[in-house]
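Record type: monomer structure entry
Structure origin: computed from sequence
Chain ID: A
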Amino acid sequence: WIRLSRSFDERSHSYLGYVLLMDGQIGEEEREFWIGLGKGAQAKHQLQVGDRASGLGRSVSDLRKEVAELYKISKLAATERFAASVMHSPPPWVGVPPTLEVYRERGHRRLAARTYDTKCRSCLWGCRMPVEMIIDHWNPQQRRYRMETFCYGPTACDLYRAGPKRKVPGRRGMTYVEEDWIDEQETSHRGPDD
């Protein structure tokens, strides 16, 4: 559950927790939905791809600012655990996600939205995050919102596709283009398989 704030050529992250894609039931409706899970709840329950769980959650108030539809999950219980013997060879990588500190330390690269949707949604390194863009420093109420996808995984992953460079709108029609060197700098401390 990572949020990204952009203001032209500046960016900052807030590492809040985990966002899990569930295939289940909300009320009487059967469908896929995203839940936001706090750091402590994930540490306690160690949920991973394939687990079954139940709980109660609140609807988020502003879907422009969140990936999850539900958060503040209570009465969370893992009802069935994913059998480790069923796991396949990566990628995508599955298992219990690492701590938020590990994600922050690893850094990320932009990931093509189509690649994320078709190949990386179940990978513990794939991330879809809400982005809040401040368009004008002098008028910080002027904001726009969108979703962006990123990869925290090994730089040698065969599934990885960067996709188009991200463009950030600025005041008076200016646009900042986030070049490839930013992704390279974010992950330069890691080896290709790390």
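Annotation 1: The two ends are 22 Å apart (CA to CA).
Annotation 2: The chain is about 15% helix and 40% strand.
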